[in-house]
Structures are given as C-alpha cells and as structure tokens.
Amino acid sequence: MSKVIEIRHCRASYGENEVLKDVSLAVEKGEFIVIIGPSGCGKTTLLKLINGLVVPTEGEVAVNGRPLPDEDLVAVRRSIGYAVQGAKLFPHMTVEENICYVPGLKGKVSKGEKRRLAKKMLELVQLPEDLAIRFPRQLSGGQQQRVGIARAMAAEPDILLMDEPFGAVDEITRKGLQEEVLALQRKTGVTVVFITHDIGEAFKLGSRILIMKEGAVWQEGTGEELRSMPKDEFVKRLLCL
Amino acid sequence: MQLMEILWERREFFVTCLLEHIRISLTAVLCAGVLGIAIGIWISRHKKAAGIILGIINVIYTIPSISLLGFLIPFTGIGNKTAIISLTVYGLLPIVRNTYTGLTNVDASILEVSEGLGADKRQMLLGIKLPLALPVIISGFRNMVVMIIAMGGIASFIGAGGLGSAIYRGITTYNMTLTAAGSLLIALLALLSDFLLSRAEKKVNRRYGIE
Questions:
Q1: Are B60 and B89 in contact (CB under 8 A)?
Q2: Which of A156, A176, A199 finishes a domain?
Q3: ipTM, 2 decimals?
Q4: pTM, rounded to two decimals
Q5: Any idea which fold B2-208 has?
Q6: Chain A: nearest CA to B103, how far in angstroms?
Q7: Gap from A183 CA to chain B (nearest CA, Å)
Q8: Contact across the interface for A92 and B116, Cβ inside 8 Å
Q9: What is the 3-state secondary structure (H, E, C) of B32-72?
Q10: Distance CA B6, CA A224 (A)
Q11: To the nearest whole percent, how much of chain B has pLDDT over 70?
Q12: Is A147 in the same domain as A198?
C-alpha cells in the first residue's frame, strides 16, 4: 500500500502560540481518516498542513510521496479537494461556476464542458440539475454544503480534505450528507481526511479515527479499537464511554 | 426664460463647451480610474505603505482646487493638460480609498478556500477579490465621476476649455445668465452621469444579492 499523505514530526505555530507539537500521520490510499478533539487542539492546523495553507516550523509533509515545499504548491492544491464548514461558496458565482472553479483554474473550460461537469457533480451530491444557474444565497444551508462538496470533487482529486463540513446544518440534513459522503467515497475511492466535533459522525464515517489533544495525536485506531481500549479518562470522556 | 433663450441663441458655443467638458472629464476619469484602482490594489498588498499613501492622497484632497491649479502652472503651463492632471489628482481619493476598503474587506475565509483549492495570486485577485470588492469600487467610482465633472468648471480659470468658460465669461462680462447657463449644464451633466452610474451600480449589486 502506498502512503498518500505523510506527515513526519511536524510542529506549527501562530506567532508565539505553538498549536502542533510533534505530530506524525501516515495515510494510505482510500482511507477515511476522521480527526476529533476539543476546540483548539490543532485539528484544522493539521488539515491545513496537507494542502500547504499552514507551513510547519519543523518536520516534513509529503503528498503522494513528494515533499510539499519542493513542489509547486498551487498544482498540488488543485489535486486536493477542500471543503469547509459553511461551504464558503463564492457568492458572485452561480452554482455551476462554483463547481467548475478548480477545472477553470487549470485552464479554459468550454461552456458545454462546464454544463456537463455541473450536471454530473450535482447528480453525485444528489441535487436537482436546475440549481446550476442559481446563486449560493438562493440555496439552503444543506444545499450549499452539497455544492461545496461538489466543488471540492469536481477536478477528481485523489485526496479530499473536509473541515467540519456538516457543522452548520441541521441534524436530519447532516445524516443525509454523511450517507452521501460515504457513498461518494466508496464510489470514487478518494482518500478522505475529515474533521468533526460529532462523535457519532466520527464512528459512522471513519475507517480510522484520530483523537487529538493539545496539539498532539493522543490516540488513534479504528472505532472498534478506541471503544474497547480507550487510553485514559480523557478519551473515555471524549467518546462518551 | 432668459436662460432658455441664451442656451438656444448660443447653442453652438454651449455644445462646443459641453463636448470639451465631457472630453476633459472623461480623460481625467480614465486616468484617475486606472491609476486609482492600481494604487488601491498595490496598497492592499502592502499594508505598511497603505497608511502613508492614503495620508498623502488625503492631504492633496484638502488643498483648495484653485491653488492646486496655480501650483501646477509653472510645471505644465496653462490649458487642458494642467486641468486634466489636477482633476485626476483630485479624483484619486474616492477611488483609491474604496478600492482599498473593498479589497481588504473581502471575507478572509472565502479567500482561504480559493487559495486552498489552488488559485494563484493573480487568479485570487481577478477571480475573487476584485469581483467581490466591485460594489464598493463602483460606489467610489461614481463619487469620483461626479466630483471631476463638477470641479471641471474651475479648470477654465487656467485657460482650459469646457463649460467653465461659459461661467468665467459670464463673470467677467457681468452676464449672470451666461454664468447660470454654464452652471446648469455642468449640474445636468453631473446628475446624468450619476444617474447612469447608479443604474450600473444597482445592476452589479443585484447580481451580488445586495439590495
């Protein structure tokens, strides 16, 4: 099995404040990694190491076997899907333009191609085709989130980073979105790194779960392993065992 | 009534003045627009320089227009050139300030997403930042256009053409009606431009969902 993402002994800080203290992580192709942990434990920072939005002060990050700083960051990012809480769609673009954003960054995309791609991606995230011409503000929160996932997946990335993507939607919508992401992952085989606050979501989605505390990986394993062998009181409390 | 009469009787003179006024204003609007947006973009990337540049432009703005024209005469002489330069300099403030404000107020989380998805610096500026700042930039542009048209009236005092010459001639020959006619045309030109630009502004805002 090849390592798609490798993070070796990384530290990262914002100014004086060190948010990651010696974190290592290796992700294999097709894994669904879920990261959980209390607020401020460095989950988002860890995720941003992978697409180079955060540069480690120490340590090394490699994507597809190539170390990040040596690579053309822009090209690497275009091969990594990125979806965040609240979707953060581009408000001045239609749904279709949002979905076709990354292919458009790589080069000119014809109108016909855009329409085809938007149709295909909307189908993948189970949205009606006629939403393509709407603007983000005309969509519900759940719909926006789906478009956000479609935008992240449009350029057929082999890695998908998701930072609490379902944090801002209601419970029922969230359940539906979880099923869809699981189906999408099975269908495309994309490697996913997923951050959540929701323990149930973590157990449901993760092929492997990473528990973080104070800028370090505290315990990791499959849902089964964590449930049967929580490392300490902190893990027990976090997992509500 | 007198006003209408004079406008009709000397229509050729007024049309010449009006066209000249439009030509001078339009040149200054283009210069100030291009220069102002460029400066605005540049200082949005160089935050340390932003305070100084905005300060300088603010100070220039406080110089009475008639004395700025006077200052420029030794360097650029009298006539349209000096008028266009001073109108450009005055027009800078609203457009630079609004471009800067618009660009720096774009939602940082949206910019981060575009960066994370693989946009380079140019694509972020042209595809995300400028379009999202557009409503603010257009409102600054509108300010600038009205100001340049109105101030264009003073340019005739240093020998430039335009509707100011009607005003100036009216003052020097005690012809109040002539002065009033020139002023009226300037006001109408400014109002019309403002109206047209407000339509453009509304159109952009509607696309962006701002009502």
A1: yes
A2: A156
A3: 0.90
A4: 0.86
A5: MetI-like fold (1.10.3720)
A6: 15
A7: 23
A8: no
A9: HHHHHHHHHHHHHHCHHHHHHHHHHHHHHHHCCHHHHHHHH
A10: 94
A11: 99
A12: no
